[in-house]
Amino acid sequence: MVLTGIIGGREASDFRKLIMDSRGGVTDDLYDTIYKKDAELLAKLRHFSVKGKKKGFHIVHICTEMEPVVSVGILASYVTGISLALQRKGNLVEVILPKYAELNLDEVQGFREVEAQLYSYFNGQLHENKVWTGVVHGIGVTFIQPVYYSSFFSQERVYGYSNDFERFTYFSRASLDYIVKSGKQPDVLHIHNWQTSIIGPLFWDVFVNQGLEGTRILLTCQGFDSQCLEQPEKLALCGLDPSRLYRLDRLQDNKKAHLVNILKGGVVFSNKVIIMTSIQSKDQIISGLGHGLQPTLTIHKEKLLIAPRGFDKSIWDPSLDKFLPQNYSADNVNGKSVCKVSLQRHLDLPQQASKILVGCIYSDISEFDLENLKMLVWMASKKGVQFIFMGFSQSAGISTALEFFKEEMKDGNVRFIDNYDDELSHLIFAGSDILLCPSFDNLQLQVPLKALKYGAAPIAVRPADSRFSPNRHFGDHDMEGTEFSLFINKTFAQLSLSQAVEEITKNPSEWNRRMTDAMMKDFSWDAECSDIHIRAYSSIKEL
Length: 543
What we know:
- By secondary structure, the protein is an alpha/beta fold.
- The protein has helices spanning about 10-20, 25-30, 40-45, 75-90, 165-180, 200-205, 240-245, 260-270, 280-290, 295-300, 335-345, 365-380, 395-410, 420-430, 445-455, 485-490, 495-505, 510-520, 525-540; strands spanning about 60, 90-100, 110-115, 120, 125-135, 140-145, 190, 215-220, 230, 260, 270-275, 305, 355-360, 385-390, 415, 435, 455-460.
- It is built from 19 helices and 17 strands.
- The chain is globular and about 70 Å long.
- Its EC number is 2.4.1.21.
């Protein structure tokens, strides 16, 4: 409405506060109006008055993925999951994305092109963009499409092109131009990975004095393995001064001194940096997983925070799960045995609730883990333990090895499902006693977190003869770890598969107590993950 001149920025800001402060009351009443014309929505908004203000943040994510709109990797589920969790806690969240070619928003209910010109500076000139706005899962979403540089987001893939720096730098600059022109004054601009890290220096060098003096920057990194190194002079494409930023304490790469590092710029110019990992501590990240950014991360250690990933508990909850033959909970676990027998019947396994059933759901698997799995299965299946493997590998070599594994393991107690089946995965979590995990930091499928919720023990894949060896995913007990890492290290991290099978068999009452305790833990997006984000927002707003 601001872009088209219907209302001014001040009134728009008041409306945003009204929505945020209402905690859902106003949005429920407005739901049928959202998809109508601006005039109708405006008329209804003006009927409301602010009654009793509640504290909440206005957060704008500027990112490249979001479920279910565009999903390539782990970023998409994170953006949607944390946004919904934050809104449930009374914050106003918006998302800005590139308008990719495969997204036909003309056919999506509720999305409309804003009839206003948005110009963005790039390569020495102002260039026009098209803008679409709408709602996804109750989250306000804006898509930006370059007109002159229309090829930037018309390719088949989201990432992996020689001009990725130009593509995402253009989008980042256009997103900031949109925020300024629309009159938004968010508390936090939340940027993600290297693709929108350029917003850090852009914000402080160009935009902060354009009505955004109260806005702060938070960067989230899903990892440091992808950083984007470029020639320093390319920074001028979006209006930055290379001579000011090409310094070791700013964007100059720590190893390749003739290049600038875009992710490093995000770390340096953000007020806080959240690193998403369920099991590593801050020191472990800095010392071993910085991929050349260790000096930068050490200097900026005080602004680094660790947050665990979560899962959507409205979908992954055995007491509500629509894919289960009988629901169950920590208070009444009787339905779990029903789910086990149903799973056994579905996969033509011997149907017996007393059988120990081990699931293994993976999105990829290493040759090391595959060799260990072979030994584990050979040993345990001879004792009547049942196994279900579901997943695939993107590696041709591993896929071939998996085929040989299947041939070797022609056993009445072992079943393989070659592709990931979401509906069946719910039944595997519910019917399994144990979930074998190649990693406790499973970013794609979040197997360990879901396993705990469904009353299945997450057990690490490790060599069969390392009964008492320390888990390779954990070092010493780390008191600075996430709640999940502390819990898993205390309860399941040191258990081998043979130990877990032995405990289930010889001490079932103690095992059931342990699993009931695990089911009562909350490791969803709404728990520790969103709490850490809110603390980060609160901290940077005080700067």
